[in-house]
Amino acid sequence: MRYAGVIFDLDGVICHTDDFHYKAWKSLADSMNIYFDEEINNRLRGVSRMESLDIILERYHGPPLSNAEKLRISESKNMHYKNFIMQMDESYVAASVLSTLHELRENGVKLAIGSSSKNARLILDRIGLGSFFNAVTDGNDIEFSKPHPQVFLLAADKISLSPGECLVVEDAFAGIEAAVAGGFDCVAIGDATRDVRATYTVTDLEELPGIILRE
Ligand code: B16
Ligand code: MG
Hints:
The protein is α/β, with parallel strands linked by helices.
């Protein structure tokens, strides 16, 4: 087996909540007369909530905002976002993702989540994977968000493996950067496939067993 463990990013890899993030940020930006589009939204992939707000506020031209106001704004966005999450169920996980996860687990590969989201556990519960993974690390467990490697290092530690024994799967440039900084090989999917730092690129998670289970 080439890798004893896999650390999956959540949003954009296991399931897709990026459109929910977009809708919630867009409605907030519109209410503050801030220009926001899908291209700016792409820059928010893998980035923490407060850092996402800072990116959106690059185009804000109103009176200065205190940290308390920024916190209130981010909490209001999160409430809107969570309303979308509450609509999620098991149908939000693609059949090929689910079969890949089971195939890896049946072959003895340890599986973890390494997400920047503070809502990761709620999302996992909604999609029926709340107790599937050997470990979950998310935005609540870390001081430094991706591109810092902390979330992946913590996940590897929780499954008692070294970075060299694990493979990270990511859809964000910030996530690929974090994996490389932590000494992990990484698989890029989606937007991140344009990142030349990725060790492998795939179009579907069902390609993972071919990478992981080979000698
Ligand atoms: P929250 P991931 C990330 O999840 C999202 O890609 C990113 O867009 C979001 O800002 C971040 O979580 C924080 O999310 O507001 O729920 O704490 O891709 O790292 O699983
Ligand atoms: Mg992601």
